[in-house]
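Thread: "does anyone have the structure for this chain?"

Original post by V.I.:
We have the sequence but no experimental structure in hand. Need at least a predicted one for the grant figures.
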Amino acid sequence: MTCVSDSKYVCTGSSGKIVWGGGGLEGRSEFGPNKSDFMAALYLDEQGNLIVEDRIQVHMSLRLLHIPTGTAQHYTVYRFRRLK
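Reply from O.Q.:
Generated one for you, C-alpha cells below.
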C-alpha cells in the first residue's frame, strides 16, 4: 500500500488489480455538513476484459449537533471488452 497523503491511498495486488481512493472531502448542503470518500479500481477479468469500478459515498449530517442523517452511495462498473 502506498499512501499519497493522509487521506488518499493507492494499492496494487499480486493479481494486477490497482485500487486508489481516499476521503476527507467536505462540503455543505442546506441541511448541514457533508463528508465524502471515494474508491476506484482498475483490473483485467478472466477473459482479459478491462474492468473499471468507481464508488463514492457522501455521509450527511444535520447542522444542529452534527447528527448523522444517512449515507448516499453511488457505485458503477464499466467493462471494456478485449478486442480479438
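V.I.: this helps a lot. The chain has a mean pLDDT of 86.
O.Q.: and The radius of gyration is 17 Å.
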